[in-house]
Structure formats: C-alpha cells, structure tokens
Amino acid sequence: VKGLAYLRMKQAPTGGFVSFGEASNPNTTAYVLQALLAANEDLAGWQQNGVGPLDDLLTFRLESGAFEFTHGGGEDLFATAQSVPALAGQPFPVR
C-alpha cells in the first residue's frame, strides 16, 4: 500500500513516471507499469489528465519501433529493452 502511494506521488501530469527531474521517462514508466501489473492494479485508476502510464510510454516510441529516453533524443537501447516487457503486459520475472 505504501509503495503504491509512493508511485502515485511520482506520477507526472503526462501519466508517466518520474525518477529524476520533473519529466517522465520510458525507463521508469515501464518499470512502474510492471509493478502495477504485478500488484493487479487497474490501469484505468492511474490516469492523469485523461492519459495513463501506457499512453505516456507510447509517446517515446519512434517510427522504427525503438524507444527514446527523452523526446527528440533518438533511439535508446535501454529505453527500448525496458519498454517491451511492460508493453507485453508482463511484470518481472518475465516467463
């Protein structure tokens, strides 16, 4: 319960999640999505301004299918690798 409350404090107005600074990023958002899935949270309850974490995560997706860490930053291997399990709806450990 305390962990979910903490995550709510870290949710950005864009629906994603912040680890450093004030803007969401795909790495943190993907890990939080996995935590929410593992906790059987209803993602509809995690909306900010009409958008949720999955919506925010997808804003970092490029036409190539890769993800960027910051908007306009170009393809990022870690952002891509961390986003895929969350998009697949799989919390860790992925089986």
**Distance N to C terminus:** 26 Å
In terms of DSSP E residues, the strand content is under 5%
List the secondary-structure elements in sequence, H or E. HHHH
Low-confidence stretches: none
Helix content: 40-55%
Alpha-beta content class: mainly alpha
Using DSSP, what is the number of strands?
A: 0
Radius of gyration: 12 Å
Overall geometry: globular
Helix count from the secondary structure assignment = 4
Q: Give a quick account of the main beta sheet: strands, pairing sense, barrel closure.
A: none
Tell me, rounded to a whole number, the average pLDDT.
Answer: 94
Ordered list of secondary-structure elements with their pairings:
Blueprint: H1 2-9, H2 26-38, H3 53-58, H4 77-87
Helix pairs in contact: 2-4
For the structure shown, list the relevant keywords.
mainly alpha
Tell me what the structure shows:
It is a single chain. This protein has 95 residues and is mainly α. Helix content is 40%, strand content 0%. α2 (26-38) packs parallel to α4. The longest helix has 13 residues, at 26-38. The model has no long low-confidence stretch (mean pLDDT 94).
Summarize the structure.
Helix content is 40%, strand content 0%. It is mostly helical.
